[in-house]
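Hypothesis: this fold can be encoded by more than one sequence.
Test: take the structure tokens below, design a sequence, compare later.
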């Protein structure tokens, strides 16, 4: 059992989104480790993530999910498993998409040859970025018939 189950479950959501958004085709449970800490077992730092310009994973992102179209929006059906609200999950998807959005600049700053960007773009520039940008966090709901409204009416 995790020493911080909510944090670790939240992190697993972000990792699932990330590996799908960079087309990591070598995604399986052995790529998720645990470390023993003074407060119990914790999710280890991420490892063995390899963006691939082509190919498909042998592991669906969600139970019964497609291997050929790993749509990150499918994760939203499992927010309770990751101990997130839908709004929190969408915000995490948006942060992951934002982090990936400047991959070209990051790669060039690390010395990657400019000619490789077109090839690797197929891994990073997937439909999932557009899918995430189409998601919106629900605006807060104000209950005009709630206790505050009744106080104002008096």
């Amino acid at each position: 059992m995790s020493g911080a189950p909510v944090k670790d479950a939240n992190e697993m959501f972000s990792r699932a989104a990330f590996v799908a958004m960079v087309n990591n085709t070598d995604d399986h449970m052995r790529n998720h480790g645990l470390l023993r800490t003074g407060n119990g077992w914790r999710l280890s730092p991420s490892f063995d993530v390899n963006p691939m310009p082509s190919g498909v994973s042998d592991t669906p992102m969600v139970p019964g999910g497609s291997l050929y179209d790993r749509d990150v929006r499918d994760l939203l059906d499992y927010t309770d498993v990751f101990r997130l609200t839908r709004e929190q999950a969408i915000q995490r998807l948006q942060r992951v998409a934002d982090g990936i959005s400047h991959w070209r600049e990051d790669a060039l700053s690390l010395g990657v040859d400019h000619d490789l960007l077109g090839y690797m773009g197929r891994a990073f520039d997937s439909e999932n970025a557009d899918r995430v940008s189409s998601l919106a966090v629900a605006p807060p709901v104000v209950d005009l018939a709630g206790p505050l409204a009744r106080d104002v009416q008096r």
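The helical segments are 5-21, 86-101, 103-109, 116-124, 127-133, 147-153. The two ends are 52 Å apart (CA to CA).
Hypothesis status: open.
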